[in-house]
Amino acid sequence: MQAIAVLPPGMEDQGAKELLTLGAKSVRLRQRSVAFEADTACFYRIHLKARLPFRLLREVARFSCDDPESLYIGIQKAFDWRHWLPPSTSFRVDVSGSSKHLNHSHFTALQVKNALVDLQRDIWGKRSVIDLEQPHLCLHVHLNSQGAVLSLDGSAESLHKRGYRPAMGVAPLKENLAAGLIEMTGWDADMPLVDPLCGSGTLLIEAVSSALRMAPGLNRPFLLMNWIDFDENLWMKEKQLAKSLQCLGRDLPLIIGCEHDPLIAKQAQENICSAGLERLIQIKNLHFRDLLLTPQRGLIVCNPPYGKRIGLPEELKSLYSELGEFLKSRASGWQFWLLSGNRDLSPFLRMKSSRKIPVSNGGIDCRWMQYLIR
Ligand SMILES: C[S@@+](CC[C@H](N)C(=O)[O-])C[C@H]1O[C@@H](n2cnc3c(N)ncnc32)[C@H](O)[C@@H]1O
Fold it and tell me: Torsion angle, CA of 71/77/81/85, rounded to 10 degrees?
């Protein structure tokens, strides 16, 4: 299969590495995505185990089109709709990209939908229901200057939603972005891990689930199970394998999250319990200045407020200064990674970074900054 993994901007390299580890071939980096080839077993494995993609798309056709009419005709001819889209199958159309005369994604989606339901009426005299939430089939059309790429989406819901986070604190990180950030630190569960401003606990939950090799897709419903060529035996085999490779009983070094807001600290605890990780992650409802670190040195990660969605600039300057003081006075020898979404605030740490990796957090241009604390 030709496939695409849609990724958080800045995570293309990490996403490609993850796909290669899971057996993908011909991995090619693109902007915000990675193209790859996979056999069916590998495609299933990636759905079950990949932590970084938002979406996994199976490419089924490419055709040239440059206006609404050629899109309408092209989509009808592009695929074996007689087998894949009988009127009993509900569907949804998602659109990305644009071209000169197809530059409004909502209109493009309607045009694709019209082409398909008109075709269905011609063949069967009736049409499918459009279901935006729980369709049987989710079609993805990507437009560029050469034409359209038609894909099937393996899941109706974005894969970053793992299901463990009913409570979201304020300005939470998306789970897949948090997983990629942890991956970039190189933490491999060999040293303590602390998030002094942990909010809903996403960085810690993703770090620990990855260390336990938990497969995020094990309990998720996937649309690929509705595809006419779905191989149930192979799916069950890959599922069993993914389950057997988890090491849920593994002991880990101390992992601590600190959150000063009692309500958010409680939500973090609830999220950790719903992810089944309460044995391994401790939440302290404290200001970080009162947090005691272990004598064994480790890794500190954090995503402080940037003053864009939360926090007032003056308060945040003193928060960053105090964080810098805390790190220099208490965490000598530790490694620190900060997700900075406001370049006017990070200088208040009064520390010199050794790496800055551009990433995007929900549209905010950020830097994942590494500091070696002396
Ligand atoms: C941007 S949010 C972190 C979001 C988190 N990464 C997540 O995914 O949910 C920053 C968090 O720091 C907390 N915070 C702010 N000042 C703090 C302090 N002095 N000590 C501990 N927590 C603090 C806020 O209450 C907020 O929940």
Answer: 10
Domain membership flag for residue 200: yes
Q: Identify the residue whose tokens are 């319990």.
A: 273
CA gap 261, 83 in Å, rounded: 54
| Index of the ligand 1 atom closest to the CA of residue 310 | 1
Nearest to 203 by CA among 110, 274, 299: 299
- Shared domain for 24 and 125, answered yes or no, is yes
Distance CA(286)–CA(293), nearest Å, equals 13
Residue at token pair 């995503």: 303
The answer on 8 and 57 residing in a single domain is: yes
Number of domains in the chain: 2
Q: How far apart are the first and last CA of the chain?
A: 49
The answer, as to whether pTM is greater than 0.90, is yes
Determine the distance separating the centroid of ligand 1 and the alpha carbon of 199, expressed in angstroms: 4
How many of the other CB atoms lie within 10 Å of CB of 47? 25
Q: Are residues 136 and 268 in the same domain?
A: no
Q: Residue 133 domain-assigned? A: yes
Which tokens hold the place of 283? 């939440």
Same domain, 139 and 268: no
Pocket of ligand 1, candidates 174, 198, 281: which has the most ligand atoms within 8 Å of its Cβ, to mutate? Answer: 198
Note whether residue 168 is domain-resident: no
Segments forming the whole domain that contains residue 254: 175-212+247-372
pLDDT tens per residue, range 201-241: 999 999 999 999 999 999 999 999 999 999 999 999 999 99
Ligand 1, pocket residues at CB < 6 Å:
169-173, 197, 199-200, 202-203, 258-261, 264, 287-288, 303-305, 319
pLDDT tens per residue across span 3-49:
999 999 999 999 999 999 999 999 999 999 999 999 999 999 999 99
Q: What is the DSSP letter of 130?
A: B
User: Based on the domain organization, do 17 and 84 belong to the same domain?
Assistant: yes
> What CATH number is attached to the domain comprising 142?
3.30.2130.30
